Structure formats: structure tokens, C-alpha cells
Amino acid sequence: MTLIAQISDAHIKAPGKLAYGRVDTATALARAVETVNALDPQPDLVVVSGDLVDGGGAAEYAHLLDLLTPLRAPLRAVPGNHDLRGPLRAALSARCALAPGEGAVDWVEDLAEARVVGLDSSVAGGGHGLLEEASLALLGRALAERQDVPVLIVLHHPPVRLNIPGMDADNLRNSEALAELVRPHGGRVAIACGHLHRSASTVFAGALVTVAPGVSHAVLRTAEPPVRFVMEPPGYVLHSLIDRAWTAETCPVGRFDGPYPFRRADGGFID
Ligand SMILES: [Fe+2]
Ligand SMILES: [Fe+2]
Q1: Cα-to-centroid distance, 59 and ligand 1 (Å)
Q2: Per-residue model confidence (pLDDT) at position 65
Q3: What are the residues facing 51 on neighbouring strands?
């Protein structure tokens, strides 16, 4: 069985610094890593769907790498609007092979029964998402080359709105270009996004789209600007292939009481 754990929106600061003066994002990411490390079986791959750090500086990426060091499973990541390609590429090259250069941080990872495609939707100096022509071309090739396997596309900016106006304004701007590529393959493709810091799922171009909650703070669901955050429970998403179909399961971060049996030794329910 293919199992991919998606964590999102870590927003790591330099050591000792809180995000927005309030959020200990380092402890939050460490908890997420601990939670994923406790999974049995272990995922085949862990993907981080952008906003790895908060400001894009080298000290933040060094801190991020420290926090990700204990992760047992192989790691992949795509940039978000809070990331900077250069420092991200330099830092993550220590954990996974990335094409060199200044361009979009895109990649293709082949697992035994699935292909995972990471697309860089970040725009220098902008908060919104946009897939460059090179990224769209890479996706087109990746889908065409392996018609025989399910594909999970990972990108930061959702190609769909969530009716949170301040966030929706920054979703993926060229969603239709993505839809054109995905539509012919819809049934075998799933799309894993972040950015909204909320758990959501919908269908886009025939593909299951999942938006992962943040591993730290959540974006407040409200129609009233400005966008604010709220400390709702953090989570992550497990993408699994069951009978060659993608299933997305949103799970809480943390350690919880249990497990406990439902039934007695004689088979009856404990009452
Ligand atoms: Fe974020
Ligand atoms: Fe973002």
C-alpha cells in the first residue's frame, strides 16, 4: 500500500523567535515530526506543502532542517508564498535531490505504485500562486509518461476557493491551465495543497483536491477581513492508495490516550 504523509505551513522562524509574536512554530513542527515518526507502518514519503519557513531567511531554513532531521521517512517539499527558492533549494538539497538553478522548485518522485509530482506555485514578491510554463510542461510530461500509475500532485496554492475572501484572493491564479492537464487523467490524480491552514476537500477537474490543515496555527474561517489566525488543533493528511484510488485522511497532530479495546475477551462489547 502506498502511504504519503503531508504536513503543511510550518512557518519556521529563526531559533527562539515566535511567529507573529505569538506562535511557537518550531515546537509545533517538532510535534508533527514526532507524530509522523510514530506512524506504523511508516509512510513511503513525507511531503511538506509549502510555507516551510515564515520569512525566507537562511537562519530559518537552517532551523527548519534541524527540526526535520529526526524525520524517519524520505522527505520532499514544495515552496509556498513565504518561502524563497534560493535558500529553500540550498537547504533541502541536504535531504533530497533537487534540480539546480534559479527556476521553479519542481520534482517528480516515483514510488513503487504511484508517482508524486511537486510543483512550485510561488511567485517572487507575491502572495498569490501561479504555475510557470515550465512547471505546467513538467506536469504534462509526468502525467503522459506514466499512464499506468496513480499520481499525487503537491502544490502550495489551492486551485479552488474556500470562501475566505482574504485567502481566496491569493489562490492559484492559473487554475484553468492546471485543470486542462489534469482533466484527461482525473480519476487517477489527486491534488494536495496547503496555504489555507484549514482542512478541506473538493473535486477539481475530476481529481480529489485536499487542502491540509497547518501543523501550527489555523486561518480563521470568516468572511470579515482582515485574515486572522486561531489556535485550532493542528493536523496533517495521510494520502493512501486503496485499490488504486486515492484516499485522503486528515489526522490530528499529537499523542492521545489509548488505544483501548471495544470488546471483551468473549467477543462482547465492553459495557
Ligand atoms: Fe501558510
Ligand atoms: Fe501560504
Answers
A1: 18
A2: 96
A3: none
The rounded mean pLDDT for the chain is 96
CA of 1 to the centre of ligand 1 (A): 30
Residues with CB under 5 A from ligand 1 (ion): 9, 51
Q: At what angle do helices 175-182 and 133-145 cross, to 10 degrees?
A: 10
Confidence of residue 261 (pLDDT cuts 50, 70, 90): very high
- Phi, psi at 123, each rounded to 5°: -130, 120
Distance of CA 80 from the midpoint of ligand 2 (Å): 5
Ligand 1 centroid, distance to 220 Cα (angstroms): 12
Can you name the CATH fold of 3-252?
A: Purple Acid Phosphatase; chain A, domain 2 (3.60.21)
Burial class (CB within 10 angstroms; exposed 0-12, middle 13-18, buried 19+) of 92: buried
Half-sphere exposure of 73 (CA within 13 A, CB side): 27
Q: Which residue has the cell 486561518?
A: 219
Phi, psi for 28 (deg, rounded to 5): -65, -45
pLDDT band at 162 (very low <50, low <70, confident <90, very high): confident
